[in-house]
Design goal:
Length: 250
């Protein structure tokens, strides 16, 4: 596939240009295409991308495809196999495996989950595992997200500094501003996302503009931290793959 190489002098930051291109054409692009677009070798581009975004470009492209699949499953009536092909997967089994490992449920169950939570939104719960210490987390939410203070907020431990894939442990809370979490073994990155009260099923399962928080450094010892929630940064917009209500079934 041919993509136009955009140099730094022509368009600003070539990495950001590649990220934008990935969002526009994830189903048809490869890492080599993105590297060519940025004007770097695939090896150098992959290292630069991972350093800036927190995951490799191949993982990022897969995440964008899964995110698009979620949107199609919730808004269209196409079969799962047709959705898989539309977002760039050649194998239904590979698509289903990747979908389940990052969203939390098989693709065929996403529509049924949407119907379920339309009547019964998820209630607070925890999936905490014992740790060697504890982190006290203060939640800093945008004032307009939850004026009554009743947003559903997930805070959890992830192996990468990106809200992609399932957390190792965490808790869903509502109506509180401080959460105590045991340290996550092998998953030192603290991430969160928030859903307004009374959000519809699609906003809970596949929010187009998720309100997220990522602590900037890995946490490996007991301390107090603040998670600042907001829209994903423009220089590294992240798809939010985990379907929040699916976590309570794990």
């Amino acid at each position: 596939m041919s993509v136009t190489t955009i140099t730094e002098s022509a368009s600003g930051d070539p990495l950001l240009s590649s990220i934008r291109l990935a969002h526009e054409r994830a189903a048809e692009l490869s890492v080599a295409d993105l590297a060519d677009h940025a004007g770097y070798s695939p090896f150098h581009f992959s290292r630069m991308f991972a350093r800036h975004v927190g995951i490799g470009p191949g993982q990022y492209l897969t995440a964008l495809r899964i995110d698009r699949a979620k949107q199609l499953l919730l808004t269209q009536s196409e079969s799962v196999i047709d959705v898989a092909a539309t977002v760039g997967f050649d194998s239904l089994s590979s698509f289903s495996r990747r979908f389940r490992s990052t969203v939390g449920i098989p693709p065929g169950k996403l529509r049924r989950l949407a119907d379920h939570i339309s009547d019964r939104p998820p209630q607070p719960f925890s999936l905490l595992t014992p740790g060697t210490g504890c982190v006290r987390v203060t939640l800093d939410l945008p004032a307009d997200l939850s004026p009554r203070g009743d947003a559903a907020v997930w805070v959890g431990w992830y192996p990468h500094p990106a809200p992609i894939g399932l957390p190792r442990s965490g808790a869903l809370v509502s109506g509180v501003s401080v959460v105590d979490l045991p340290l996550g073994a092998g998953a030192p990155f603290l991430l969160g996302f928030a859903v307004p009260a009374h959000a519809d099923a699609q906003d809970q399962l596949a929010p187009p503009d998720p309100t997220v928080a990522v602590h900037p450094v890995p946490l490996t010892h007991s301390q107090d931290v603040t998670l600042h929630f907001g829209a994903t940064a423009q220089d590294r917009p992240m798809p939010l793959l985990t379907a929040l209500p699916s976590l309570c079934t794990r």
